[in-house]
Each structure stands twice: as C-alpha cells, then as structure tokens.
Amino acid sequence: MNFRRIMAETRTGLSRNMSMVVSIVLVTFISLTFVGAAVLLQMQISSMKTFWYDKAQVAIYLCSDSSSADQCPNGAVTDDERQAIEERLDSDLYSQYVDQYYYEDQQQAYENFKEQFADNQALSFVTQDQLWSTYWVNLQDPNDAAQAAVIIDGFTGMAGVDQVQDQKAYLDQIFAVLNVGSLTALSIAGLMLVAAILLITTTIRLSAFSRRRELGIMRLVGASNFFIQTPFVLEGVVSAFIGSVLASAALAAVVKFFVQGYLQSAMPYTAFISLHSVWPVFPIVIGVGVVLSALASAFAIRRYLRV
C-alpha cells in the first residue's frame, strides 16, 4: 500500500512540474552527452595510438636535386652513398633497433602521393623531382623514443642524407590536440553537471513548496520522513534517467552513423571505435545521471523538510 502511495505521489509531482521535468531532462541530456563524448574521444585516441604507433616509422630522406646546398652539398644521393646507408642499417650497432626497412624511390613516392591526394588541388603543384627518395625504418619498439633517437643521431649528417624524421613526433602533436579537445569537452560536461544538480535541487524544493499543505498533513498523521522524501527523490531520478538514456542514444548514434558510417569510409586506413567496443560507456552514463540526481534530490528535500 505504501509503495502504491509513493508511486502515486511521484506521478503527481511529475505531472504538476512538467516544465521543470523537461528542463532537468534537457540539462541532464546535454551534460551527460558531453561526458560520454569525452570518454569516447579518449577511447578513440587510445585506439588510434595503438593502431598508428605500431606503424610509426623513422624516415631517412635522401638528397635530391631539389635539396638545399646546406644539407646536401654534393647534390643528389649516389648509389655508393645509398649502399653505405644500407650497410649502416644492417650493422650490429643499428640492426638491434631495426625491425625492418625498405627503400622508396622518387617514382614510388610520387605514385603514393597521387593515390593519397587524388582529390586534392595540391597534386597539380607537386612533381616527382620535388619528392624525396626515402628509407622507411620500422623499429623493434615504435613506442621507445630512445630507439628512434639512436637512428636519428646515427644517420643525420651522413653523406647522401637530407634529413631524418621520427613520424611518432608528428603523431604526438596530433594526439596532444585531440587530448585538449577531450579535456575541453570534459570541462564543459563538468559545468553542465553542476548546472543539472542545481536545477534538480531547485526543482525538488519548488515541488515540495507547492505541496506544503499535503506535507504538513502527512506529518500530522505520522508519516515517516522516508515516506515523505521518497516521491521527491524518485521525481529527480526519473527525470535524470530519461535524460541519461537520451544521452546514451545520442552517443550510440554518433558512433554508428558518424564514426562508423562516415569517418570509417572517409578514412579507411585508420582504426575507429565500434559500437560493440563502447557499449560499456552507456551504463556508466546512465548510472552517473541517476546517482547524481538521487543525491541532489535527497539533499534538497531533506534541507526543505528541516526548514
């Protein structure tokens, strides 16, 4: 009987404060969407790091006719200089850090460039002679910066070498930008969650004020604090639950239609998160919404009844 009465009181409160309920749903939806987006972005960054760091290479760019005289005073690389580079890569000193390496001449570099930038206007401004012939070096441990440093130090300034670059350094810059975006989304989510908590607290207190006569009668007939407080807590929980479910649905739609649907087809050579890999995030989002709303509602009604 008490349970039915509690549920009836909850339905009454929700119907009387529909505009406030909608506000809680929207604020919870937006804030938890930002929370989930920040978590998904971190998962995406982790997935991309695993995918790209394993493929990160050290590039030994060889001198060409278009290289500067400061870097390549003797002009384009010769066959003897190329042989000396390969001998050094195969030497005991450097082979312990090298998993494998391969040579890409200017023609191959140009073909790869045309394939990668087929729809880019930059293709019309680049010629084969402007590209480097390159030794691409795969390290034993791509995540070990010390191994890349050994290769860079060992081949920089060598005859026939224009410059040596670690691709992982470029990836670190990209991931640093993505991490800033993730932290920004998380900061906005935190502010929105604070706003949601304040809104839930205000809504519950207004709901209790509008039913102050009923609450006074319930106290006079001996109703317990638990019986009085529970409907108000449930109002906040139900509203936040709806908002958190909507947030989870929005995140699932982003992963399915934007990440897997658009990005996966636009960037087929990159690892992206899937709906299967991120589904554990959704119960967390819903749980955060429900727990925060329950705590905020319980705090608000207790403060009101105490007054």
From TrEMBL:
<keyword id="KW-0812">Transmembrane</keyword>
<feature type="transmembrane region" description="Helical">
    <location>
        <begin position="279"/>
        <end position="301"/>
    </location>
</feature>
<dbReference type="GO" id="GO:0005886">
    <property type="term" value="C:plasma membrane"/>
</dbReference>
<protein>
    <recommendedName>
        <fullName>Cell division protein FtsX</fullName>
    </recommendedName>
</protein>
<dbReference type="Pfam" id="PF18075">
    <property type="entry name" value="FtsX_ECD"/>
</dbReference>
<keyword id="KW-0132">Cell division</keyword>
<comment type="similarity">
    <text>Belongs to the ABC-4 integral membrane protein family. FtsX subfamily.</text>
</comment>
<keyword id="KW-1003">Cell membrane</keyword>
<keyword id="KW-0131">Cell cycle</keyword>
<comment type="subunit">
    <text>Forms a membrane-associated complex with FtsE.</text>
</comment>
<dbReference type="Pfam" id="PF02687">
    <property type="entry name" value="FtsX"/>
</dbReference>
<keyword id="KW-1133">Transmembrane helix</keyword>
<dbReference type="InterPro" id="IPR003838">
    <property type="entry name" value="ABC3_permease_C"/>
</dbReference>
<comment type="function">
    <text>Part of the ABC transporter FtsEX involved in cellular division.</text>
</comment>
<dbReference type="InterPro" id="IPR047929">
    <property type="entry name" value="FtsX_actino"/>
</dbReference>
<dbReference type="InterPro" id="IPR004513">
    <property type="entry name" value="FtsX"/>
</dbReference>
<keyword id="KW-0472">Membrane</keyword>
<dbReference type="InterPro" id="IPR040690">
    <property type="entry name" value="FtsX_ECD"/>
</dbReference>
<dbReference type="GO" id="GO:0051301">
    <property type="term" value="P:cell division"/>
</dbReference>
<feature type="domain" description="ABC3 transporter permease C-terminal">
    <location>
        <begin position="187"/>
        <end position="306"/>
    </location>
</feature>
<feature type="domain" description="FtsX extracellular">
    <location>
        <begin position="57"/>
        <end position="164"/>
    </location>
</feature>
<feature type="transmembrane region" description="Helical">
    <location>
        <begin position="183"/>
        <end position="206"/>
    </location>
</feature>
<feature type="transmembrane region" description="Helical">
    <location>
        <begin position="226"/>
        <end position="259"/>
    </location>
</feature>
